[in-house]
TrEMBL record:
Family matches, as Pfam families: SNO
GO MF entries: glutaminase activity; lyase activity
Organism of origin: Debaryomyces fabryi
Family designation: Belongs to the glutaminase PdxT/SNO family.
A GO term from the CC aspect: glutaminase complex
Keyword set, alphabetical order: Glutamine amidotransferase, Hydrolase, Lyase
Residues given in the record as L-glutamine binding sites: G60, E61, S62, R121, I152, R153
Protein name per its UniProtKB record: glutaminase
Amino acid sequence: MTITRNVTVGVLALQGAFIEHIKHFEGATKSGYSDYEFSFIEIRTEEQLEKCHGLVIPGGESTAISLIAQRTNLLGPLMRYVKSEKPIWGTCAGLIFLSTQVENGKPGQQLLGGMNIQVKRNAFGRQLQSFQSDLDFSSFIPLVYDFPTIFIRAPVITSVLSDINGPEDVNDFIIHTKNDYENKAPVQILHQLDNGLIVAVRQGSKLGTSFHPELSDDYRFHKWFIDEFIVKAL
Ligand SMILES: NC(=O)CC[C@H](N)C(=O)O
């Protein structure tokens, strides 16, 4: 007799593209996982968050997600969750929220500080606010040579921070996390565009992508997150 294990993955549902992530995870796990019974749930409260083996922070607007998290008292629980070393994947605005520092943040914007990186919001400028590109991710996802990758007013990773305490001369735009967590794992660059811009990084159990795999019709990225981050951490 095989024993099935219940696994819960949460998607932060304060604002943005959370339903799309849930649909992709459901599609990605429909078959091939006889040992696991997956539930993908929307997260709006601390009680819901506590049930999760891993968390996804979707794209949307990082300033709005931060504001709603503060107003609904979820910011503290999210900062504690980041420290638990459970898998977390931030896409686009979620990547910004998960970072340690934003070079063009909005005053009052809060960051979870899960990855020792600095990001820049809306990094592709006005002409190129949104675009789609087939990218070769086969160096980290086996056999994925042509993933349909959608960028919408996307951020990029501008540096890896060695000093997580932040800059001494913080100006009006550099926003630094208030979380005292330091992720000790090395930051790995997973993908750089041809022009050198960094759009996917991993730091131990944390993953950050500038783009939106949940807006394509391809489940392979979500399946990789389940296999590589969630299942391996169980
Ligand atoms: N598609 C997105 O998530 C856009 C991110 C948005 N520009 C921000 O700063 O939060």
